[in-house]
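Researcher: For the record, we're logging two predictions in this thread. I'll number them. Prediction 1 follows.
Model: Prediction 1, sequence and structure:
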Amino acid sequence: MTATEWLLATQLQAPSKLVPIDVAFAVVALLVLLPSVRRRGVAGRPGVARRRGVAGRRGVAGRRGGAWRSPAAWRSVGVRAGFAAAAAALVLLVCWLTSDVLDLFGVSLSPVTRMWCALAAATLALAGTALVQGGRWRRAVAIVLVPAALLVPALGVNVEFAKYPTLGTVVDSDPYPAFDAHATPATTVPAVGEVRTVAIPGRRSHFDARPAVVYLPPAALVRDPRPLPVVLAFAGQPGAPSDMFTAGRMGTVLDAYAAAHHGRAPIVLSVDQLSAPGRNTMCVDSQLGDVDTYITQDVPAWATSHLPVTRDRAHWGMVGFSQGATCAVQFLTGHPDDFGAALAISSELQPIDQSPQHSADQAFGGSVARWEAAAPRALMAAHEPYRGHELWLTAGSSDREFSENARELGAAATRAGIRTTIASAPRSGHDWNTVQWSMRAELPRLCGALFR
């Protein structure tokens, strides 16, 4: 392993790395905040104690750490602490306004994320105040504190959200090698599957999709493999197709399932339903792109001509997170002949971009009625009764809004005849920890359903 490969493989969520970093960060912050500890001789002249004997040593002892007894030094501490507290309070206010009042993110920021944001602001303010107040050593330590105030809270937020497992996933959004349709088949069934990147063209939709990520189980890597079920995966918004494998750790679960089933597992295509990280297409055909046509026609056409997949669409399923989960429920309920099952992790009740009217303007020709008709519950009412379809709905236990969404969607799906399971990821929110738990707990059940 080269030095670069070692660096990119650095784990960003390992306690063995994070705890020492957090401790060092706290020590540096305290050094900037508290008064300096200095050893001075009588009248501030070093060495006087050695010339004046015992009496001199007593005088020195009375003056050691004199800054800790100086009212002026503690007033400076108060100024630094006051600026830090004010900055933290301001950022907490901004978090509340943007998250809870304006709902700019679509989900409420967790208390842990707010804490880290406030801590970052506080330490930056502390460092800035120390640079102004002066002192050679304090300024030097404050300069070190500035990048630490950005890095350490970012690592903390990443642990809370679980998006980037390694440094490599931060700098490379497409970490997998290219798919080779002409690769030499394995002579025996491999122990694990392969994850590859592949471009799936939108021949009918003309949708400008980013490259997809394909998982080929061990049984698909041998010569003349038997046809396998298919799972289409959708990351959230913002996001990229590779997120389902890097942050969601989907490949690990699929390899474990394949190991328990003689190398057989569904072929997974994590496809792009956004075309850009922050674009919410709402998974319909619109001015934002013909996503419905891309997912239901272009992707299956490519898969059936390039991969050993079953043509029986009852054995095709989906898994999605957040916006991608909403899409999965939409496709299952709106195209019951094309998909047999879905796992929806933290789904919205309907496709939504900011507000109903804005959503209608973006993707439904300005018609709120058309937007309402694209909601999964409306689609269920239009297509019921469903026969043989299955739906798993999950959300984080601390994610109250999306947990309620799961209950409402589950009740509607059950009434429509869809076999529905609702589960809660313990001690997690609207984040990739919930995705990882859902993959471990529910993805094997989805795979089993597609093999029936």
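Researcher: Logged. Prediction 2.
Model: Prediction 2, sequence and structure:
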Amino acid sequence: MALAAATSMALIGIAAPANSAPPEGPGQGSCKTFDDPQWNGWTDHAELGSTLRSIESSSKGRVAVRQIGTTKQGRELWSARVGTGKRVLMVQSAIHGNERTGTEALIGILRDLGTSNDAATQQLLSSVTLVALPMVNPDGGELNRRMNVVPWDQVVADYPQLAGAPRAWYHGLNGDGIDLPGFDLNRDFNPRLDYVPQPGDLPGQQAGAGFFLSPESRAIRDTYVALRDEFGAVDAVVDLHHMGPCERTTGGPQDGKLISVSLDYPPLGVNDGAAYQAEYPLLDQDKSRRYALAVARGIQSSYGSQSPLAGVGRYFHPDAREYAGQGRSAFALNGSATVLFEVRGQQDDLGQKQHGMLIQSVRTGVESLIGAMASGEVDRLNGGEFFGLPDYGWESSSD
């Protein structure tokens, strides 16, 4: 199986063979976009619940599935946990509802970890506990849009103290051409994990913390806090996203190659988040860069240089970029390594033709990190080498 082969090599420090990449299919090496893509093949919310229960059953309890919350439109938020190791990795996907490849990648990983009995998989399971949140914005996903669906009056109903306060800056009255209000959920986090919304904090600002105004962000936060209480710390949090379809790496042997995955550590402003260090002494930006580097090294070693999957680089991250309200920033300020994945292309850009390639890119990266955590390789890397990854000609972002 793919996971066993890749992780067994990672555990003993041997790169996967260059020909392990699937053959390049039509369009995989291009950024051709589609105005009316085909949607068949993507897991919707109803299918996700039944698929996770099926994985739980076939794993004979190795994978534990539970509901961690409910959206305002009544859809369940699911988590799936596998492994018994002391090192904890939490991976969330589809916080932007139209960014779906992470969901498919996590389903595949859970299925393999739940049923494989080879030695490499058993070592992973005894070393790492993986908690996957495969679809944390299902309301947005059903509409194929970035935002969730939450009217402001429902926020006030949850928090009556906010009556008369201005709406949070990241709450919109419509999004992606759909006339329904909601949040960019990836701005709704606060490093004070017990924060309760206060009217004087609204509307807030882009560089500041969020307010936990949506049930989805609270469910993610509560999952993180429960793991921290159980294990003492959450080693790492991975956030799976999409970016524009046509960015190309600049410099080095991969110059001009379409990027497959770009990676980032927390965007906390100038001097590597120095302004946060006094209040949040657990912040360790170098740790986040080591974990991101482990992902990059795993992808690079798994595919030959000519594969469209091999183009991995650094996400757009100027020194002044500051998003304390993103989950990856909030959890990093609490001591976890956090890694942003931005896989190339939204589904509505690339459609079905690159479906398998995009999923494989994400899956290889997550599996590489699991293997590096299990072997301890992630602790031995030099985080400064993260800056040696290719940059790219930035056009658009979506994190």
